[in-house]
Amino acid sequence: MGMQTLERESLQAGCIASTRRFFPGGKLSKKRWKDALAEIGREFQPFASKYRALGWQEALGSSGTHKAISEICATMKLSKGAITAEALPQLRDELLKAKKIDDIQLPGLSSDRRPIIAGGILVLEAAFQALGLQKLLVSKAAMREGILYDIVGRAGENDLRRPRAGDRTVTAGAGAGAMETGCRRCPHAGLGCAPA
């Protein structure tokens, strides 16, 4: 299979858009969180059962927000850098101790991520619940590196645009503020997996 995409979906549920949409005025509350989690969860429903049926061998995240949440998990000693189903509710509870986004104090959270971290944790919690994820590993490379790999490969025999047996693909263009989910073996996707 190589890097061939088995399934792919893209949701407009990024951390910036979700923070603005569900926490207007920077106000945080358990009720807002619960309502937002249910709404984002519904966005996963059209394809969640298909992904659950495929099974998960490995799930990878590559966004800056995934990396920030991973760092928080490690700093809080909830994991050794992976994002886990057990860690997310603990992060959420710690985050919701603040009543306003400006007051969020999560260990390991950089000040530039504070304004958007609520939406990032929210979307990940919804994804974990809808897709049945237990653990998300975080790639050191981001989607942009995967795109660069694709561009460099076009200069030679590794041209990913040439159709051939065992064709390799790079999926780009999730768009700003999108969360891409996919069942793939490529670590350069927003959130990917290799089937069990």
UniProtKB/TrEMBL annotation:
GO terms for biological process: polyphosphate catabolic process. One of its GO terms (molecular function) is exopolyphosphatase activity. Residues 4-153 form the Ppx/GppA phosphatase N-terminal domain. SUPFAM superfamilies: Actin-like ATPase domain (SSF53067). It comes from Rhizopus delemar. It comes from the Eukaryota. The lineage of its organism: Eukaryota, Fungi, Fungi incertae sedis, Mucoromycota, Mucoromycotina. This is Ppx/GppA phosphatase N-terminal domain-containing protein.
